Amino acid sequence: MANNHHIYDKLINITAAEHVLVNEQLKHHTYTHLGGMADFYVTPESYEQVQEIVKLANEENIAFTLLGNGSNLIVKDGGIRGIVMNLQKLNEVRIEGNNLIAQSGARIIDASREALQVNLSGLEFACGIPGSVGGALFMNAGAYGGEVKDVLVSTLVVNREGDLLTLSAEELDLAYRTSNIPDNGYIVLEANFALKEAQYEAIKEVMDDLTYKRESKQPLEYPSCGSVFKRPPGYFAGKLIQDSNLQGKQIGGAQVSLKHAGFIVNKDNATAKEYINLIQYVQATVKEKFGVELEREVKIIGEDL
After folding, report:
1. Which of these, 80, 75, 71, lies nearest to 223 by C-alpha position?
2. Which of 64, 114, 212, 239 could make an SS bond with 57 (beta carbons 3.0 to 4.6 A apart)?
């Protein structure tokens, strides 16, 4: 406990007491409403503070985890040890000519709306993606035929040593729902997107259409991690799950959505263990019936109870 006080004192010295929470329940910070406690939950307000927190974790040899806005994530019931950092306070979006520069903590959906306001096209696909800009780069987020790598020019990151690096989009190895950001331990601070001028009405029409498709087909009335599985080559995950008669299948409070089979919802105060068990049950059933391996799109982190 003495060590915890020591780390706490150093953290509030870097940022401020109101930005450092001790034993914070992570279920309050995930879209699934799942997850145990973080030892320290820190929300820095500047790039310099991010660098200092990374350096502190290195110096003290304490575990460090970056949490996005928790939309494509399951945190286990035992929570996360060490420092958990959230960049939600770094959320500015600015326009420079035909480029949109967004800080990591901004929601990608808000970036797409900012682009619309200045008649810039290219981020329409993101108008229904709930994740942060940093999270969108982390997994090369995409929807309805568009993805981050189509418009990303460069990014500013902090590396494992706490140094600032500017990287081109090519240096991130962006592919279907992946990048090299996690492997390299990069923390995205901001992203630069190259967009194109277009008519406001034309951009808005596309965004309205995509928003309607999302709201009419996805189970937004319940907490969930979004689309659970990657699209298997030659198939659609939702169709395979549906054809396996798994819609409505429930383990504890977790349920395969009746509205969209590709989603698992927290219908009734599920635990992370129940949610993960249901994911594994779906994978095993689809494999048995169709011989297809469903690969998770959602990331699972933390410790079991």
Report:
1. 71
2. 64
| Residue from 52, 190, 274, 297 carrying the catalytic annotation | 297
Q: Give residue-wise pLDDT tens across range 137-153.
A: 999 988 888 999 999 99
Q: What is the pLDDT of residues 167-191, one digit of tens each?
A: 999 999 999 889 999 999 999 999 9
| Domain boundaries along the sequence of the chain | 2-86, 93-202, 218-301
Q: Is 227 a catalytic residue?
A: yes
Reply yes or no on whether 107 is catalytic: no
- CATH architecture, domain 2-86: 2-Layer Sandwich (3.30)
Is 112 catalytic? The answer is: no
Residue range 218-301 forms a domain whose CATH class is: alpha beta
Catalytic residue (choose from 132, 154, 227, 257): 227
Please tell me which residue in 177, 214, 231, 296 is annotated as part of the active site.
Answer: 177
| First-to-last C-alpha distance (Å) of the chain | 20
What's the CATH fold of domain 93-202? 3.30.465
**For 32, phi and psi rounded to 5 degrees?**
-80, -15
The residues facing 99 across adjacent strands are 96, 194
